[in-house]
Amino acid sequence: MKTKTTFLILLSLLWIQTSKCLAASSNEALLKLDSILVSGFTKYQYSYNEQGQLISERFFIVTEDSINMIYNLSTLTEHFYENGKKTSSVVSRPREGVITPFTRTVYEYDGEKLSVEKQENFVNNQWITDKKSTCFYNEDGLLSNIEYSVFRNDVFLLIEQDVYQYDEQSNELSCILKQMLIPENQWSDKSKTEFTYESGNLVCQIDYNYNDTINDWRATLKKEYIYNASDDNKVIYREYYFVEDAFVLALETEITLDSTCPSENLILPFENNLPYKVENEYNSQSQKVSNYYYSPLETSGVISLDGSVHTSIYPNPAKDILNIRSNQCINAVDIFDVSGRLSAVHSGPATQLDISALTQGIYYVKISSAGQCTTLKLIKR
């Protein structure tokens, strides 16, 4: 069982920086995650636009009266887009019976890549800047570090950074190192997270804090994914806390998958690091079950950035040959992987491309024609 693992931070960037225009597959429908119901206690609900971009997230807490279960909205997150890119996200909560905005994140770009996230707080009916994060990328187009600043006295003050490290062979994320800025503009290690894989699957993630007393790293939390070699539909997820020089089991969840539906066919509001569709999760400690509910993504074809249907790719999924149909002359085609790295370039009016050299996974096909660009999602088999 193999998959190309993408992490939450990278997927979050992908949702932000990518024009999520989707081609309806002729063989396999794309499924979107609509909701997660946790043992009748809480519910998460998601909605999307025609392009498959997440436009709202709702979190409900369930209460019961003598007859019915009542879903009370606790948090609403709305996402807004322009020209296929996410421009802002607003988090609102009920206050005295009225849904009231609390925080807003505004996104800025350098070309197609996310450059800056600014977080604002809603105070006295106006948005007040609070902090920002600035993203940087290496020569391969992978995220290299994120700098965090707080807004004080009308100036952004740099306080921390995350440094991303990758395996040189596979380009899989191996470590995220968090550092804080100390006097004399020196970076001091604060914490780190290390990732381990087997056959392309994330199997272990360990968090560490730097201990100034012993001048060394000390583990705090370990997360494990245990795959069943005889059953692709079962995965055990465990969390351990590091207590008195040993890892102590704190959480165990059995995850049931649908191995007939690979993750490439899913539209998700988050990354679950698993190769197939999640059906449910069972937490043995709390004895709570989380059930996942999906439905097909409804789209009439391929939606371009101006809203008109004029470009399509087929077949999708594709194995060796990708065809492009357009009512305009094609000038160039660029293919990017999910990290934003350019994987293939085709110049000229080609309408049939050889993609056999690409590895299996999700790609984004940027088609330039008549002075416009359309970006489509491709599943490579």
Features:
single chain, 381 residues, Lipocalin, 2 domains, 18-stranded antiparallel beta barrel, five-stranded mixed sheet, 27 strands, globular, disordered N terminus
Structure explained in plain terms:
3% of the residues lie in helices and 65% in strands. It has one helix at 8-17, and strands spanning 21-22, 31-38, 42-48, 54-64, 69-82, 85-95, 98-110, 113-123, 126-137, 143-152, 155-166, 173-182, 186-198, 201-211, 216-227, 234-243, 246-262, 266-267, 276-283, 288-296, 311-314, 321-326, 330-337, 342-347, 352-354, 361-369, 372-380. It has an 18-stranded antiparallel beta barrel.
Biggest sheet: strands, sense, closure? Answer: 18 strands, antiparallel, barrel
CATH class of the largest domain: Mainly Beta
Write the H/E string, N to C.
HEEEEEEEEEEEEEEEEEEEEEEEEEEE
Mean of all residue-level pLDDT scores = 84
Write the CATH architecture name of the largest domain.
Beta Barrel
Q: Give the terminus-to-terminus CA distance.
A: 14 Å
**Helix fraction by DSSP (H/I, runs of at least 4):** under 10%
Q: Give me the number of helical elements.
A: 1
**Strand composition percent:** over 45%
Structural class: mainly beta
CATH topology of the largest domain: Lipocalin
Strand tally: 27
Supply Rg.
22 Å
Topology summary:
Layout: H1 8-17, E1 21-22, E2 31-38, E3 42-48, E4 54-64, E5 69-82, E6 85-95, E7 98-110, E8 113-123, E9 126-137, E10 143-152, E11 155-166, E12 173-182, E13 186-198, E14 201-211, E15 216-227, E16 234-243, E17 246-262, E18 266-267, E19 276-283, E20 288-296, E21 311-314, E22 321-326, E23 330-337, E24 342-347, E25 352-354, E26 361-369, E27 372-380
